[in-house]
Amino acid sequence: MKKKQIITRRAAITTGMASLGALIIPGCKQPLPPNYGNILRMGDNFTYAAHRALLPGQSLAKEYRFSEISSMPATGTINPADTSKEYFSESYERLLSNGFDNWQLPVEGLVARPTSYSLNQLKSFAARTQITRHTCEEGWTAIAEWTGLPLGTLLEHAGIMPKARWVNFYSYDGWLDCIDLLDAFHPQTILAYGMNGKNLSIPHGAPLRLRLEKQIGFKSMKYLERIVISEEYIDPGDIGWAWYNGI
Ligand SMILES: Nc1nc2c(c(=O)[nH]1)N[C@H]1C(S)=C(S)[C@@H](COP(=O)(O)O)O[C@H]1N2
Ligand SMILES: [Mo]
């Protein structure tokens, strides 16, 4: 799918970052978000709950009632096991043929304990369920219920390091995208394996997708394959979008 350039909220983030002692890289238009060490130093109490309470710009996205759930179309990639599509993935096809029993999510890079998590392991962490509105850049919205584990829980389980600044996501249909740690530790940022009370379906990103409720729809990556924590910004190439697209 072709993505169009939209205006970033650069000014807004820059202001927010100033309070975190973050830098604007000279000669680079992009503001540098805080690393995990910056976030840790913001409080005396290094617990996840404390980070969350202290982080700026962490207002919650609106959550809806069960009766407000709408139908939701699946867009972009709708089945990476479809051999007729250019995004076909042989490894995804193999995992799907086995009901995702062998699926694992590696969490690598700047973590003390690089780990590959099975779906059952991910489901064993405390889950969060939220009914939120998805806003696609192509002009439609939909309300659905999502269940999964907070991304922050996983990052702390893997031992995210103080130098870490970016969380990069790779998907089976070949996408690469990143978020900063303010979004990564936002309480509504979850890795979802459930939708509307059922296992996440193939069109909606099975077995695991990101839900990033404060940014535009395409940032909620489906078909997660791998997570890499980095200090450097990993350029996803020309996807026609800035890395930050808040709503
Ligand atoms: N891996 C992957 N993630 C993706 C996409 C995709 O094509 N591939 N499409 C994005 C877009 S543009 C939107 S609007 C949402 C759509 O989610 P849905 O198909 O569950 O409605 O997923 C996003 N995440
Ligand atoms: Mo979208």
From TrEMBL:
Stored InterPro entries: OxRdtase_Mopterin-bd_dom, OxRdtase_Mopterin-bd_sf
Superkingdom: Bacteria
Domain Oxidoreductase molybdopterin-binding: 101-232
Protein name: Molybdopterin-dependent oxidoreductase
Species of provenance: Algoriphagus aquimarinus
